[in-house]
Amino acid sequence: MKAIINGNVITETEILENTAVFIDEQFIVDILPMDEAGAELLEVGETIDARGGFVAPGFIDIHSDYIEGIVAPRPTSLMDVNIGIRESERILSSHGITTMFHSLSIYREDLFGHKPIREPENVQKLIEAVARTHGEKHLIRHRLHARFELDALEQLPILKSHIEKGNVHLLSFMDHTPGQGQYRNMAVYRETMKSYQNMSDTEIEQKMLDKLDYEHISYDGMKELAALAHSKNIAVASHDDDYIERIDFNERLGTTISEFPITIEVAKYAHDLGQHTIAGAPNIMLGGSHSGNLNAAEAISEGCISILCSDYYPAAMLHSVFKLHREYDHPLEEVIKLITLNPAEAVNMDHEIGSIRMGKKADINVIQFNEGYPVVTECIVDGAVISRYHYRVDEEA
After folding, report:
1. Which of 257, 265, 305, 258 is nearest to 281 (CA)?
2. How far apart are CA 288 and CA 268, in angstroms?
3. Taking the model in full, what pTM does it have?
4. pLDDT tens digits for range 2-40
5. Would you list the domain boundaries of the chain?
6. CATH numeric code, 2-56+356-388
7. Taking Cα atoms as reference points, which of 19, 4, 104 lies closest to residue 58?
8. Which of 2, 22, 102, 361 to pair with 180, CA 20 to 30 A apart?
């Protein structure tokens, strides 16, 4: 048995000061005030001193394409996918992410630049690499978020096969057709293409026209794919919802998650229907959307965003919740749920992870401060300490 001592434990409802958390094998077995923990501490083989820091649940990131940058650090450099998965574990655990849903895009064609990592054969390799972690030694919990572009019809059979095999753990529908969703403004779409593609204005216009003409999966096809996911207890999400009518459409499909609603009105509508609503944690750190859409901090203050994801910047998970706490005066025990319990509920994993509660898996972060800077000093997954950091001060010469 091990114990985390002298911590301020963030539970589902409150922060328990000067408290010990006891772990036996993979599970949390007791939570006691330090002045009542003496007898149990005598039976502990290992203690982790939180030194007055916070003891929080492990972070659950259900939307991040960070793995693409690990495997393909340059447009023409494609590294071994298995090495990429293993290297990502150490990076992600240092940011407190104990469960990562690697978000892989299933495209017909990515108009925003040629990325070899998004070619079907390389996406397939990544899917298989994520699946292999389930039967091998691993540091963090790896899951797959399959992001299906609605015109990628030729990819449907292999996607269905992966769902049947249990390789997919979250499915989302996305549509990057010019003039809707994140790129409702066609001028923004053109400028975004220009920033990625070495093309003339005429070539960009033709590409956009081609994209508009692509055949999309039918409603019945979407309904069938969503039903297949539900049969495997896989949650289904929609992406870049820009109109209330789109939320209604997705509700009929059986989606339960609205990723990156474009406006606060759409976010409120989805939230009021009982949908989980997601914003990017980098949005909090940047002070707003990098593409001019919903402001996540405002939406959280309005009570209509329930989940934060790292999207593309893992460090944002930790720093965004402390920014919300310090600068927007949100209770820490509430905003921590944005990256722990709420995403766990959204992907049907809250019976095992997402909060510090007796009987749950011991996925835990110890968070301390270096000159006001929050740091995950210990990251624990399934009861095992997988990373540990301590700052030092050099002595003057």
Report:
1. 305
2. 17
3. 0.91
4. 999 999 999 999 999 999 999 999 999 999 999 999 999
5. 2-56+356-388, 59-346
6. 2.30.40.10
7. 4
8. 102
Of 289, 282, 274, the closest CA to residue 313 belongs to 282
**Could you tell me which of 126, 120, 83 has the C-alpha nearest to residue 101?**
126
CA-based radius of gyration for the chain: 22
Give me the residues paired with residue 366 across strands: 55, 378
Joined tokens for residue 209:
């026209």
> Per the CATH hierarchy, to which homologous superfamily does domain 59-346 belong?
Metal-dependent hydrolases (3.20.20.140)
Q: What angle do CA 247, 167, 105 make, to 5 degrees?
A: 50
Does residue 148 come out as left (phi exceeding 0), alpha (psi in the -120 to 50 range) or beta? beta
What 3-state class would DSSP assign to 381? strand
Tokens of 207: 């590409």
Going by their DSSP bridges, the two strands 235-239 and 46-49 should be labelled as unpaired
Q: CA-based angle 264:288:311, to the nearest 5?
A: 90
Instruction: Answer with the residue of higher pLDDT: 176 or 339.
Output: 339
CB-CB contact of 1 with 29 (8 Å): yes
Q: Which two tokens stand for residue 192?
A: 């975004």
Q: Residue length, the chain?
A: 397
Read off the amino acid at residue 147.
Answer: R
Which tokens go with 327? Answer: 């600068």
CA 209 to each of CA 2, 190, 203: distance values in angstroms, whole numbers, following the listed order: 61, 12, 10
Mean pLDDT of the chain: 91
Q: Give CA 259 to chain center in angstroms.
A: 11
Q: Which helix (H) or strand (E) holds 101?
A: strand 97-106
- Give the residue carrying structure tokens 């001592």: 5
Q: Which of 301, 294, 378 is nearest to 335 (CA)?
A: 301
In this structure, are residues 208 and 189 in contact, taking their beta carbons and an 8 Å threshold?
yes
CB 264 within 8 A of CB 305: no
